[in-house]
Amino acid sequence: MAYTIYDGFVLQAKRTLTTLSDIIHKAEEHPDASKFPTSRLYPDMRTLSYQVAASTVQTLMVMAKLTNQPFPDFAPDDVVYTYPEMYERIESTLKVINEADKDYIIEHAGEVQLVKLGPFEQDLSGYAFASMMQANIFFHVSTAYGILRKEGVPLGKRDFITPFFTVKA
């Protein structure tokens, strides 16, 4: 069986967002949990809330590209989410992933269309866009993990990688 864009992006995004949900649940149990949504790794970096928004909206952007749907709007930088709001963002994104038509994605991922990237536009295939955005999504989830570790949440490598071994298609 061939390894497809569905395997390489869609299932990996599902696992990545499951990791994000799991580490946020663990953070919510911490005595200092109320300060984490606005916590940062460094003063000039963005907050945990932003990391959740970026990882979910960027996943939705790729899913929109792969399924020929309109792109979602990006959340403003200064939004602070509650834990239920963070979970809702992740769960609604996972719902989009779970409802996606695998065959459609595989069949149409090579189609090239104009994609808006911030102030720029570029012709990209679904493959190219997914590959580029996957790095961004991993970055934001890894940054969320780093923020929570910095704040004292007892997370380890196992907390990050376990969903990559246990989440099924």
Give an overview in words.
The protein has 169 residues and is mainly α. The protein has one domain: dinb family like domain (Four Helix Bundle (Hemerythrin (Met), subunit A), Up-down Bundle). 61% of the residues lie in helices and 7% in strands. It has six helices and two strands; from the N terminus they run H-H-H-H-E-E-H-H. Helix 1 (5-28) packs antiparallel against helix 3, helix 1 crosses helix 6 (157-166) and helix 2 (48-67) packs parallel to helix 3. The mean pLDDT is 93.
List the domain count as a whole number. Answer: 1
Number of DSSP helices?
6
Q: What is the number of beta strands?
A: 2
The CATH superfamily is known as dinb family like domain
Order of helices and strands: HHHHEEHH
Q: Please identify, by name, the CATH architecture.
A: Up-down Bundle
Please state how the strands of the largest beta sheet are arranged side by side.
1-2
Q: State the CATH topology.
A: Four Helix Bundle (Hemerythrin (Met), subunit A)
The stretches of 5 or more residues where confidence is low (pLDDT under 50) are none
Structural class: mainly alpha
Task: Tell me the radius of gyration.
Answer: 16 Å
Strand count, sense and barrel status of the largest sheet are: 2 strands, antiparallel
CATH class, named Mainly Alpha
